[in-house]
Design goal:
alpha+beta; seven-stranded mixed beta sheet; four-stranded antiparallel beta sheet; about 40% strand; disordered N terminus
Length: about 230
């Protein structure tokens, strides 16, 4: 059996429930993927000759095989937790990207036709556009979610903004021309600007107090001279 190179693609093709989320704090990016598979829909390998069906071996590979989050990197693998409740198998995957590593995310590079990712000092900019090639099941919908406490400069949100959550919905109506844009200040730069503003306010307050004191002293001096 051909090994699953991109589990995310596999589940969107075969109809598993898939949740994709990026947690961004400061300049740290953590990728979280949740796959939910109904066990009653899993079939034997001989009845599932291609990857568009949920074969038992394919699901087993999702549960136990090496799943690599970064392109051309077979040293790092997803942290994985597998649970089963009410005949549904849930696979939770997590990976924390190192500095500038997110640009080589396997999912981002293999699912989105175009990507522009900039991680400069103090700012993160993510722009994903063009065809989303990991959604071939017309009945599937993917919520691409970014959760962050960083200050947002710009977000072309399409589905709604919740508490620190920015969600773009991808389905058959827009998968050929997705457009996800978000620019944010990292915590360090946000705090830096805050400190600068606070410093400026303090300087203004000191100047005002000095002018006030000078005016008072001048008035007293003039009165004494009279």
């Amino acid at each position: 059996m051909k090994k699953i190179i991109l589990l995310f693609l596999f589940c969107l093709l075969c109809g598993c429930s898939t949740e994709y989320q990026l947690n961004i704090k400061g300049d740290k990016i953590e990728e979280n993927i949740k796959l939910s598979i109904n066990n009653s829909e899993i079939i034997d390998e001989e009845l599932a000759p291609d990857m568009s069906l949920k074969s038992r071996d394919s699901i087993e590979y999702l549960k136990t095989g090496d799943l690599y989050p970064v392109l051309n990197n077979k040293l790092d693998v997803y942290e994985r937790n597998v649970s089963e409740v009410d005949n549904v198998t849930t696979i939770d995957l997590k990976y924390s990207y190192k500095k500038d590593q997110f640009q080589n995310s396997k999912i981002i590079n293999e699912c989105f036709e175009k990507k522009e990712i900039y991680m400069s000092k103090g700012k993160i900019s993510i722009h994903l556009s063009g065809k989303f090639s990991c959604l071939e099941n017309k009945n599937e919908t993917l919520d691409f979610k970014i959760v962050t406490g960083n200050k947002i400069d710009y977000a072309n949100i399409e589905y709604g903004i919740f508490d620190k959550e920015y969600v773009w919905q991808i389905d058959s109506t827009n998968s050929n021309n997705v457009d996800i844009q978000i620019d944010m200040l990292t915590e360090s730069k946000y705090m830096y600007y805050g400190v600068r503003i606070l410093g400026c306010l303090m300087i203004v307050i000191v100047i005002v107090l000095i002018l006030y004191a000078y005016t008072k002293i001048s008035k007293r001096k003039n009165i004494n001279e009279i």
